[in-house]
Design a protein that fits this description.
This protein is of the alpha/beta class and about 110 residues long. The chain has a single domain (about 1-105), classed as P-loop containing nucleotide triphosphate hydrolases (Rossmann fold, 3-Layer(aba) Sandwich). It has helices spanning about 10-25, 55-65, 75-80, 95-105; strands at about 1-5, 30-35, 40, 45-50, 65-70. The strands form 2 sheets. Strands 1-2-5 form a 3-stranded parallel beta sheet, with helices on both faces. The radius of gyration is 15 Å and the shape is globular. About 20% of the residues are buried.
Length: about 110
């Protein structure tokens, strides 16, 4: 499974429980994907951690798994998802996910 998380501290605790449960059930956890990781200003391109600093890498390292992607808060991305047009949205945030999935297929 791929576990989706967000930067909030409470979510890290829930993710840890989910990873432990998956391990108890002998279900491999492939990686973490962090949603709402940051907001990038469209004008100056500075990144702002709206929900606090990321805990994904720390949590992933604790369990020996990878952080595949950190997805930004992006109104255009949300609109594409809502409109069923996510495949038309251009962004490189999921490149790590696709690369990891290709590696796992081999």
């Amino acid at each position: 499974i791929i576990i989706v998380t967000s930067p909030q501290e409470l979510v890290s605790m829930i993710v840890e429980k989910a990873v432990n449960m998956a391990k108890m059930m002998n279900i491999p956890v492939l990686a973490l994907v962090e949603n709402m990781s940051y907001f990038e200003c469209p004008d100056c391109h500075s990144k702002h951690a709206i929900f606090g600093e990321s805990n994904a890498d720390k949590t992933a390292k604790k369990f020996g798994i990878d952080t595949m992607a950190k997805l930004p808060i992006n109104p255009k991305l949300a609109a594409a998802c809502d409109g069923g047009l996510i495949e038309l949205f251009e962004g490189d945030w999921l490149d790590g996910v696709f690369k990891k999935l290709e590696e796992l297929k081999k």
